[in-house]
Write a structure and sequence with these properties.
By secondary structure, the chain is of the alpha/beta class. The protein folds into two domains: 192 residues, 2-enoyl-CoA Hydratase, Chain A, domain 1, CATH 3.90.226.10; 47 residues, Orthogonal Bundle (Lyase 2-enoyl-coa Hydratase, Chain  A, domain 2). The protein contains twelve helices and nine strands. The strands form two sheets. It has a six-stranded mixed β-sheet, with helices on both faces. Strands 5-7-8 form a three-stranded mixed β-sheet. Helix 6 crosses helix 7. The structure holds 3-methylmercaptopropionate-CoA (MMPA-CoA) (1HE).
Amino acid sequence: MAKRPPKLPKSLKVERRGAIAILTLARPEKRNALNDTIVLGLETFFATLPASVKAVVLHAEGKHFSAGLDLSELKILSTEEGVAHSRGWHRVFEQIEFGRVPVVTVMHGAVVGGGLELAAATHIRIAERSTYYALPEGSRGIFVGGGGSVRLPRLIGVTRMMDLMLTGRTYGAEEGQAVGLSHYLVEDGTGLAKGIELAKRIATNSSTTNFAIMHALPRIAEQDRASGYLMESMTAAIAQGNEEAKNRIKAFLEKKAAKVERN
Ligand code: 1HE
């Protein structure tokens, strides 16, 4: 029996296009500020992705990708609740980063605080030229809580993150591209098309290889060399041992598969 699609909040929209799903933050009136409803909705979405979805594109409605944490929810939290709140974000963002399918994020306008933490938990980031990044937690008297202090230093280094947080400076799209916040820099209005193109391409890879890229690669990168080499060998052997790899390599040798061309 076909599973009923999960119930998502109005602030999240989903569209299917073949093997990819497009997930839209749809709370533009609050600049896609991330409240509990959206964060839990993200959890539901990623936990219930149909097996036929091989990649996801995440983007946002309105002038800005996301204004970060919904600050109107913060004022009612005790210390204990604050810890639980942050741990909840960790749970959901971990599920995205170490989930089943790669996620391509298309950013524009403000990518701020928790919005940047969300984007950092995804696998490929595209920035439209209007994108700017900030971590204004210092000026709000709070701290990153969505895994930003774990993920962002790995992307841009501790000292850049310190600068963003201490001085309240912003990075524009070009600076973000130069320091590694985005993988692709595109003109305004073209990000979604680029995201769909990339997600469709990702969806054609072997699921086993995509899984290894998402789950083994970042863990190997954090291991000592000897453990890394061992895990790489094991992962390579598992990937190449499966029927799909054999068929794909056979197709290439029989000149039935695409060559690697410059794009
Ligand atoms: C919000 C939020 C929000 C907007 N929480 N309601 N994030 C920040 O410190 C960023 C705060 N937001 C801004 O600096 C600006 O809103 C923007 C630069 C993103 C956009 O400016 P603008 O002129 O387009 O919109 P606006 O008029 O400021 O906001 C429109 C509405 O959204 C307004 O509500 P309204 O009822 O008066 O119409 C704003 O109050 C509301 N709004 N941003 C709640 N963030 C897990 S820890 C993560 C820690 C963080 O993320 S800290 C960063 C918090």
